Every structure is written in structure tokens, then in C-alpha cells.
Amino acid sequence: xxxxxxxxxxxxxxxxxxxxxxxxxxxxxxxxxxxxxxxxxxxxxxxxxxxxxxxxxxxxxxxxxxxxxxxxxxxxxxxxxxxxxxxxxxxxxxxxxxxxxxxxxxxxxxxxxxxxxxxxxxxxxxxxxxxxxxxxxxxxxxxxxxxxxxxxxxxxxxxxxxxxxxxxxxxxxxxxxxxxxxxxxxxxxxxxxxxxxxxxxxxxxxxxxxxxxxxxxxxxxxxxxxxxxxxxxxxxxxxxxxxxxxxxxxxxxxxxxxxxxxxxxxxxxxxxxxxxxxxxxxxxxxxxxxxxxxxxxxxxxxxxxxxxxxxxxxxxxxxxxxxxxxxxxxxxxxxxxxxxxxxxxxxxxxxxxxxxxxxxxxxxxxxxxxxxxxxxxxxxxxxxxxxxxxxxxxxxxxxxxxxxxxxxxxxxxxxxxxxxxxxxxxxxxxxxxxxxxxxxxxxxxxxxxxxxxxxxxxxxxxxxxxxxxxxxxxxxxxxxxxxxxxxxxxxxxxxxxxxxxxxxxxxxxxxxxxxxxxxxxxxxxxxxxxxxxxxxxxxxxxxxxxxxxxxxxxxxxxxxxxxxxxxxxxxxxxxxxxxxxxxxxxxxxxxxxxxxxxxxxxxxxxxxxxxxxxxxxxxxxxxxxxxxxxxxxxxxxxxxxxxxxxxxxxxxxxxxxxxxxxxxxxxxxxxxxxxxxxxxxxxxxxxxxxxxxxxxxxxxxxxxxxxxxxxxxxxxxxxxxxxxxxxxxxxxxxxxxxxxxxxxxxxxxxxxxxxxxxxxxxxxxxxxxxxxxxxxxxxxxxxxxxxxxxxxxxxxxxxxxxxxxxxxxxxxxxxxxxxx
Length: 820
Prior knowledge:
Carbamate kinase, VC0802-like, elongated, 4 domains, eight-stranded mixed β-sheet, six-stranded antiparallel β-sheet, single chain, Rossmann fold, alpha/beta, disordered C terminus
């Protein structure tokens, strides 16, 4: 025997009734079938509204609306099934409506609606569904037995929520229906109490009716037909790529439904679980789909099956300095809540017994506080307990899976996902079976938390959502690198999206990301608003970005001074801009604090050697316990190129002009030749090594006379640079006469930093550097007298952009399991 239950959405109109008839007929052709039905969609709500209108005696309009609604479905069904005995069917419907009208009239005379009357009224929709299905099958010469749930489904009276006594119900069913024919129909939702009066089965009552009938009839399977394909690993209305679960265990289904999944109520699963009757969730509108099969095993290797959420929760706290000394405290608390007829969702208790916290539905929060205040009035008055506290506007997010038991790292992944969503965890609970882990969070962050948890726990894809600030030479190259590498990285399970581009005046934001074929420059030019943190914050929340990264390709001090705020607002920061790391030490430390506290990365490898791994190597040595002794390096690719060219016979102005034409220098080469850029890089390295130095602590000797370094106009500077040619050529000649070459270097020794021109011989690691290369010799306790030497191109937009790209990839979460 198969039990099929159809919900209100499956019976919303005559067309839907037709679908249901086809499904029943198909099943009945192979198996004896018992059918349980809800009221047509919307009818039960109207009936509840009708009952509420009794006190105000405003029932007439609502009653007529219900009559018209049901009559419309009946009339349409008679057109679809012209063989129906219309007269007999209409007579039965008129009788149902007459009973409804009589019950409303009687309740109106009383001025209220007794429980038995309430059950009879509110189940009128289910009786209409049975009536119409019986007529349709009769028109097909198929007789169906009508099962009366108030005759055998017995409801216990000692529970806060309606629960059936399944054993008594099963015994009563066998006596009432010793034999059940091939097809039977039953209205859901109703039952009888200990006195034999009609009552309801509460929320999801029709599903529960079907489960009870499945036990009574000893069904092979109980199928619940609804308007979705089955149970998903998260809410498909919230998560676009939520995955349908083909199988689930009873335990998993109960936990999921308890913590917010809308497909089934826990009490529906309970009798099926007890009697080991499988349940299948199917879609009425797509009966060919397999649905979700719920049984004693989930038949999967997945450790985590689903992430679900339960909104509209409040947390009640009972606490006090003397709580530990009060015997039976927890028992008294929960007895009080039970007596108030309040359901507890989850419990969290401090190990010191100082505080007991528990969650209840938000609608019951005030009632819970009132009950506890009464029960513990003496303890509160005497100071043994603090006043009862309640925190509103909360939600519970839960991960579920039978195979989570004894698996290390599940909780860490869950809580790390919440941290990535910048969600504060208010309380935590894990059931003793280790099938669920729950966290209480603020309701306003629930959607983001669910999305990010789903992405972290079920996708093997790392997300990087990039906003590039600065569209100059380096910025344009980086944007091109990002757009050209998207497909390749997608193959490596990295979902890279360029979601924003900003220049000094405009900000372009694209929720779905900028594509390789887009004319981003034209789109950016159309924007009327500039960069602001407030606008970025709003965009991240509305677009539900999982891993937002800001990449600064500018040399702007105002942008650098916003890094702390960027980090505090949940952005990783990747930068080639040296201004932040060379601001005063207070800001330098604030950046590190913001990065640690916000669990966001601040990455700046390109501050020193463009694409060369200088910072990474130095940090690695220091973390291993090494200590910097001496650092000596060529830190400017542009000056490296210029100094190499003068040793080939060019004058300083000629070499600078050539470097400028190749794009190696700043727009104004005075910035390079002043040595300030090298000084900043040297200060970054010194600070990485633990030296608390400011820019004023450095000794910087420019490569040119100081009066030229102040010229802000590039063309004017280049015109006057020739004045230095003769003097500079003499320096070159003097060095070469000693078998040496000139290099513009930075040297760190102890707490002293010197930046300037140095003549080096063949024995020096910097002697052979040429063609715009950077080179660094790092002497440490581990690497001395032979230093660590890092050498490579340090000038050019391509290598700088590549360095930024590499830092960007470091923002991926470790648990993403990606291969680069």
C-alpha cells in the first residue's frame, strides 16, 4: 500500500486537481493507494480568518468569498471532467457549505468558537478536496473508500502541541477498517480527542495525518507531494545553486525540519521513523523527478548534508553570581517554560553554571520572561539571580549531517564560514549525537550567513570578488590580467569576478562582474559617483559578495589612509601603494590590528620588489626565528635601468629619457631620482624586520642635486636634468677607474638606513645587476656570510600587476580545497 499526501498548492485549482488525479491513477495502477489531501490553497487561511471574525460578527463577506472560491474550482472541474455527476456533486458540496454555515451561525450565537467547532470549520477545505476527488474517480468508474480520521486518529491531551497516540490510532483503524480497498481517500488535519470530539493536528497537520495513516495501514511508503522537487541542502529561494538531496536519513530530516526547513514537520517524521516506513518528497508539477527519499540511512558519503536557518528567534538568559549554588536550577527553569506551554529551540549553558541561555520563538519571548520572573521572584529580589534578560531579533543557523559524528574540523569550517561572513556568534549548541551544530546569530545577517556557509561547506570553489582602484598603467594591465585569466582559474575551481573599477572621479560596480568582452572604460566614464566606503559597503551587502578584495594600484595617500576602514568593513586589501606602510608607526600598527581583528588580509608584496617575493621570503625567515643583520639592495627598477645605461656611455639625461619612453619611470622622473621611492621601500623592509622607524630616521641622498627634486613639472625637470650630466659622468668615470659601477642602493644595518649612490665592485652581489633588475642581498643569522639574494625585474607594469595578482590569490580561504 502507498500513502500519497497532496498539499494545498497541489490542489489550488481544477487544473491542479487534474494533475493530482493523474498521479494517483498512475500509482494506483501498480499499488493499492490511500490518498490524504489538504484544503485547496488559500482556503484554510480564509477559514481561520472567518473564525476570527465571529467575535465582530463580520463573517458574511468572508463566508461568501469562501463559497465563491470553492464553487469556482468545482465549476471548472465539471468542465474538465464532463462525466462527473454534476447534480450529485453539487448537492454534496452544498451540504458541506451548509454545515459550514450552520457551524458559523452557532459559534456566532455563542460569541466565540469552541475547540470542537473550530476543528469542524477549519477542516471544511479538506472535506471539499475529498468530495471533488471522489466525484472525479467515480466519473472514471473507480470507487474510492472514504476514510474518516475523526474515527480513529486519537490525539493525546497531555502535550503542548497536538500529538497522536499512534498505537491507539492503529488499533482503532484496524477495527474500523479491517479491509481497505485498492483506492481510499481521507481528509487531513483533523482527528479526535479523548472525549471523541473533533480536534486538529496543528501545523503541518495534513502531513502528520498521512504519516499516521501510513503507520495504521502498514504502508510500503508515504509520499508527500508538494510544489518543490524535494529537500535541498539549503533554502533554494535564498541559494540559487542549492542542491537537491536524493536521499536523507530520518534523523537528518527531523533535524532539518526542526531548524527551519519547511518541507516537513518533525512530528511528521517521528511515526514513520518509529515504524521504519520510508517517506518520499515529490513535486506534483514534475512527477517524473525522483524527489527525496527519506529512510533509516542517507546513502551518501557527504559529511554535511545541509545548512538551514530558523528566523524569528529570541534568546532568554537566566544568570546570576549565585546560580551555581542553587540546586536544580536548570530543572526549575525548563519546568517553568514547559508549564507556560513554550517550546525551547536550543539550549546553551556556561560550564561554570553562571548562565543558562535558551532560544524560543520570538512570539513567546515576553511570555517566557513573565513566567520566569514569577517563578524566580524571590531569587531575583534577593540578588541571587540577575533580572531575566531577553535578546530579540535573532536567528539560528544549523548544519546537519549523520556522518558529522567524530569528524574533525566540521565545527571549525562552520564557524570560519560565519567569520568570513563577518557574523558574530551569540551562542552555540551541538546535539549529543553530533548530527547538528547550531549557532545563534543576529537576524539581519541571516541571509548572508546562510549563503556564505553554503558556499564554504558545499562548494569546492574559492570566490574572489575584486574592486580595482586606479586605472593608470599598472591598473589597466592588472584589469586585463584578471579578465584574461578568469576562464583558466575557473578550471582550477576559483571563481574570480571583477566587480568594481574606480578612478579618481568615478566608480563602476557590476553585481555579476565585468566580463572580458565588456568595454569597461566606456562604462566607467558613464558613472556619475566616485569611490566611497559607504557605497562599497552597500554594494557588498546587496550583491552578497563572499570574499571582497580591494586592490589599490594608485600612489594616493588619501586612499592609503582608508585601508584601516576597508579592513574593518570586511575587505581584504592588496596594494602596490607604499604610502600606507610608510605612514607613522601608529598607522602602521593600526593596519596590522585591523587585519587580525577583522580576519582580513593586508598584502603588499609589490611595495618593495614589484613581482619579486621579497616580503614573503623575509617574513618566512623571521617567523622561523631568524634575524635580519644587514640588508643591501637595488630597490628601483627605473634607477637600475638608468644606472645601467650610463655605464654603456649614455649621459644621465639621455638614460632617463630612454627609461621614461619605455615606461619604467614615474610620469615625473624627479620622483625616481629623488630617492624617495627607494627610501619608502627600505622603510617597509626595516619595519618588517621589527625596526620601529619613521621616514625622518632615514638618511637619503638623491641621485641629483636637491634643487631639482622639487620640480613638479616633468617637462621642466627633463629640460634642466642635462645640467647634471657632466658631474654625473665624472662620478661614473671615477667608479669605472677603480673597476666598480654605480648603483643606487638602500642599506639597512642595525637601526640605520642609508639610501644613495654606491660604487660596488665585482665582489658585491649588486655588481652585475642590469637592465632594470632589482636585486637584494639579505644577511641574517642563518644566512651569513653568504646572503639570500633575490634578483629579477623590478620595473614595468606587467611584473607589478603580476605581483598584485599573486597577492590577490592569497585572499582565498584555506578550506576551499582549490588547486593553483
